[in-house]
């Protein structure tokens, strides 16, 4: 596990492209440029999982709002290469993300997951995420309205006093 850099972008983009092809992870339909992706994600809490130089997956966060009251709330994305799925890579990435965000004072991690992506929902549940609710027909992908399950994890160590 190590911090993501701009040099990782080709491999990160390739894993992201697999998620796009699967049509089960995002409303996005094209891989953005590094500059666009970088501008939309926090500089902190970007991690890649690698083995012998091969990138197996990545996780990154975005602020949910620019308002200061939401400074401790981040939205995250986690992607695992097809060839590495089912091998614990997603769990390793989430564990590392949870540690790094809690160390930085983040009290809530959230994500939106398509309800059909049962593997992602199960992964998140194993790491303490709970379903907040379903945003029905919140967006269209390939002309089809899709629901999104909103999940969140509240930190046990970053107290809300």
Would you write up a description of this structure?
- The chain has helices at residues 9-22, 34-39, 89-103, 118-126, and strands at residues 2-3, 47-51, 54-63, 73-80, 108-113, 130-141, 144-154.
- It has a seven-stranded mixed sheet.
- The chain has a single domain, classed as Gcn5-related N-acetyltransferase (GNAT) (Aminopeptidase), CATH 3.40.630.
- The chain is α+β, with helices and mostly antiparallel strands and 161 residues long.
- It has four helices and seven strands.
- The mean pLDDT is 95.
Kindly report the oligomeric state of this protein: single chain
Q: Any idea what the radius of gyration is?
A: 15 Å
Reading the helices and strands in chain order gives EHHEEEHEHEE
- If classified by CATH, what would the architecture be? 3-Layer(aba) Sandwich
What is the CA–CA distance across the termini?
32 Å
**Helix content, binned percent:** 25-40%
Parts with pLDDT < 50 across at least 5 consecutive residues: none
The largest sheet has its strands arranged as: 1-2-3-4-5-7-6
Sheet with most strands: 7 strands, mixed
Structural class: alpha+beta
> How many domain regions?
1
Short description:
Helix content is 27%, strand content 34%. By secondary structure, the protein is α+β, with helices and mostly antiparallel strands. The protein has a 7-stranded mixed sheet with strand order 1-2-3-4-5-7-6.
């Amino acid at each position: 596990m190590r911090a993501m850099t701009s040099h990782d972008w080709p491999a990160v983009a390739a894993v992201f492209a697999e998620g796009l092809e699967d049509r089960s992870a995002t409303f996005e339909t094209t891989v953005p440029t590094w500059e666009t992706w970088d501008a939309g994600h926090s500089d902190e809490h970007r991690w890649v999982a690698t083995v012998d130089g091969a990138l197996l997956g990545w996780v990154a966060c975005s602020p949910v709002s620019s308002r200061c009251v939401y400074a401790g709330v981040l939205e995250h994305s986690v992607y695992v290469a097809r060839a590495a799925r089912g091998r614990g890579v997603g769990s390793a990435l989430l564990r590392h993300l949870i540690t790094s965000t809690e160390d930085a004072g983040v009290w809530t991690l959230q994500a939106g997951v398509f309800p059909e992506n049962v593997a992602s929902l199960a992964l998140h549940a194993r790491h303490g995420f709970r379903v907040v609710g379903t945003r029905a027909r919140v967006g269209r992908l390939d002309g089809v309205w899709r629901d999104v399950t909103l999940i969140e994890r509240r930190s046990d160590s970053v107290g809300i006093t």
